[in-house]
Amino acid sequence: MTVKKFKPILILTAAMIVIQLIVSLIGTEFYLTQLTMALYYSLIIISLCIFIGYAGQISLGHAAFFAIGGYTTAVLTTTNFKEYIGSGLIKLIHGIGLTSTTIDPYGKEILHLSPWLALFTAIVITIIIALIIGIPVLKLKGHYMAMATLGFGLIIYRILLGSKIFGQADGISNVPAFTMPFGLKICGDSSLRLENYYIAGFIVLLGIIILYNLIHSRAGRALRAIHGSEEAAGASGINTAKYKLFIFVLSAVFACISGVFLTHFFGGIGPAEAGVMKSVRYVALVAVGGMANIWGTLGMSLILNFLSLRGVFGSYDDAFFGSILILFILVFPDGILKVENFTRMKEFFKDLFKKKSEKVNKA
Amino acid sequence: MSVTQIWQYVLTGISMGSIYVMVAIGYNIIYNTTGIINFAQGEFLMLGAMIAISLSTVMPLIMALVLAIVLTTIIGALMEFFFIRHMKKPTVLNMIIITIGLSIMIREAALHIWDEKVHSLAYFTGNELSSINILGAYVSPQYLWVLGMSALIIIGLNIFFKHTTLGRAMRACSSNKKAAWLCGINVKNMVTISFMLSAAIGALAGCVISPITQTQYDGGTSLAIKGFTVAILGGLGNNNGALAGGLILGVLENLSIIFLPLAYKDALSLTILVIILAIKPSGLFVKKVMSSLKEY
C-alpha cells in the first residue's frame, strides 16, 4: 500500500470538498441537489465503464437494472402492510424491527418495510435477474449482445409500463426517506442538501475504491485480457465466462444500488428511468470518458449529468448526447482525457507559435 | 373465439409481419456487406413516412412517395459517407455506438423538423372506412398494398442479387471482402450502395405502413426491434429466412391478444428475441453445420 495508490482517491475527496465550498460561498447551494443526483448516476457509469471499457462487452440494458432497484424499493416502502400484520412473514419482519412507519401526505399512517430490507431485497432480485439474463447473453458477441441487452431493457420497460403494481405511466411517488445511522437521511429535502451531497459522495467513493482495486487485481487483468482476445485469454487459463458474468452481475448491482438511493432521494421513480435513451446515455458517457478510463468516465459523467440535470441543453438534451456519442467515436475513439491528445495539442500550439515567430523574423 | 375471428387476426398478422420482413431485409443487406447492424434502420422508416406526409400536402401521393424514397436514399448514402466510411477505429463496439448515435440524431432532428404529434399518410386506395372481404375476414385495402409491396421487394431483391452484376458484386463482398477487392470490386462503394438500398426499402416500408399504424418521430424504434427479431429468427443475413420469420412473428403477435393483455403485446416479441438469442442465435432455419462455422 503506497501513497501513490491513494492519490486519486484523495484528490477526488478534496475535489468534492472544494466544490461544496465554492458552491456554498457563491450562494448557489441549490446546485448541490443536481450534483448529488449526478453522483448517484455516476455510480452506474463507472461500473459500466468496467464492463464496456475494460472487459470489452456492451450492455444497452443497464437502465433496466437501475429501474429494478428503484422500483423494488419504491414498491416495498410505499405498500401499506398494516392489514397483513397478522400474517407470519410480516409479523416476523416486524418483530425483528425491519419495518418503519411513515405518515403519507394525506395524514395516513403507513407501515412499510425498512429501506435497508428493501435495499437488500433489491440487490438479491437484481443478482437473480442479472444471472438469468447474463448466463445466456454473455455467450453472445458484439451486435448480438447489444441487441439482446437492448431487448431485455425494453421488456422491463414494457412490464413497468403495463403493470398496475408499478403505477404504469405515472410511476411510484411518495417514497419515504432512507434513514441511516447517526440520524442521517437520504431524501430530497432542501434543508438536508449538504448532508445528502456528502452521503452520495461517500457512496461513490466507496464504489470507486472497490472498482479501482478490482481493475488492479487479478480479475482486472483477466478482464483486460478478455477485451484483447477472448480466445487468447481462454487459452491462457482464464475462465472467461465466469469473469464476464461476475463483472456483469457486479455492474448490475451497482446500477441497482444507484437506483435505490436515487429513488429515495427523488421520492419517486417513473418508467422513463428504464427507457432505452437512459441506457444509451450511460454508454455515451462511458465512451466520452475514454472507454477504459474510470477517472475520465467519472469526471465526464459528473459534469455532463450535472449540466443535463440543470437543463442546460433544454429540448436538445437527447440530441446532445447523441452528437457527443458520434463525435467521440469518430474523432476521439479513446476519449478526450488522454495524454496523447494533450501532447498533440501542445505540439500544435508549439508549431503555431514557431510559424508566427518565423514570420516575425522574416519581416 | 370463432374461426373467422382467428382468420382475421392471422390476416392482419401476415400484413404486419411483412412490414417486419422489410425492416429485417434492410438489416440483412447492410449486415451482408459490412458485418454491422445498422441501429438506425427503424429511423429510415420514420423518415420516409414523415417526408412523404409533408410532400403529399403539395403534390400527388405517388410523386410524394417516389420523392420520399429518393430523399431517404440520399440520407442513407450521406450517413455512410460521412460517418461510417471514415471511422478511425472501426471495431464492432464503435460501429454499434455510432449507428445508435445516428439513430438518436435522426430522431431528434425529426422531432424538431416536424413535431411530437402523430401523423399519417393518406390511404393509397379508398379511405379508413373501406374494407375488402377475404374469406370472411374484413381487411383494409392498405393491407393488400403492404403485402404486394413486400412481395415485390423480395422478388426484386432476389433477381437483383442473383442476376445483376452489381448484386453479384455485393454478394461477393459479403462472402469475402478481401477476395472481392482483389477481383476489382470497390468494396467501399458497395457499402454505400447497401446503405442506400436499405434506406430505400425502409422508406418504402414506412410509407405503406403509415396509413395503418401512423407515424411519430420516435416510431422507428419499436419497428426496428421487431425487424431485428425477425432478422434473427430467420438467421441474420438470410432474406428468405427473414420472410418466414416475419410471418411467424406477425401472426404470433396478433394471436397473442387472445391470451395476453394488449399492454404486453410488445413484450412478447422482445421475449422471443431474447429467447432466440439465448438458445439459437443462428436463427431457426439455419443448419447446425452452417451455424457452427459462424461466431455469435
Provide an overview of this structure.
The complex is a heterodimer of chains A (363) and B (296). With 363 residues, chain A is mostly helical. Chain A contains 14 helices and six strands. Chain B has one domain (3-293): ABC transporter involved in vitamin B12 uptake, BtuC (Orthogonal Bundle). Chain B has twelve helices and two strands, in the order ααααββαααααααα. A two-stranded antiparallel sheet of chain B has the order 1-2. Chain B starts with a helix and ends with a helix. Classes of the chains: A mainly alpha (363), B mainly alpha (296). The A-B interface holds A 52, 56, 58, 60, 133, 136-137, 139-144, 146-148, 150-152, 154-155, 158-159, 161-162, 276-277, 280, 283-284, 287, 315-316, 318-319, 321-323, 325-326, 329-331, 333 and B 36-37, 83, 86-89, 92-94, 96-98, 100-105, 107-109, 111-112, 221, 225, 228-229, 232, 261, 263-264, 266-267, 270-271, 273-274, 277-279, 281, 295-296.
Layout of strands and helices, then pairs:
The complex is a heterodimer of chains A (363) and B (296).
Chain A: H1 3-25, H2 31-54, H3 62-78, H4 88-96, E1 99-103, E2 109-113, H5 115-137, H6 142-162, E3 172-173, E4 178-179, E5 185-186, H7 193-215, H8 218-228, H9 230-235, H10 240-266, E6 268-269, H11 276-288, H12 294-309, H13 317-331, H14 339-362
Antiparallel strand pairs in A: 1-2, 3-6, 4-5
Helix pairs in contact in A: 1-7, 2-7, 2-10, 2-11, 2-12, 3-5, 3-6, 3-10, 5-10, 11-12, 11-13
Chain B: H1 3-34, H2 41-56, H3 61-84, H4 92-113, E1 132-134, E2 137-139, H5 141-163, H6 165-175, H7 177-182, H8 187-213, H9 220-233, H10 239-255, H11 265-279, H12 288-293
Antiparallel strand pairs in B: 1-2
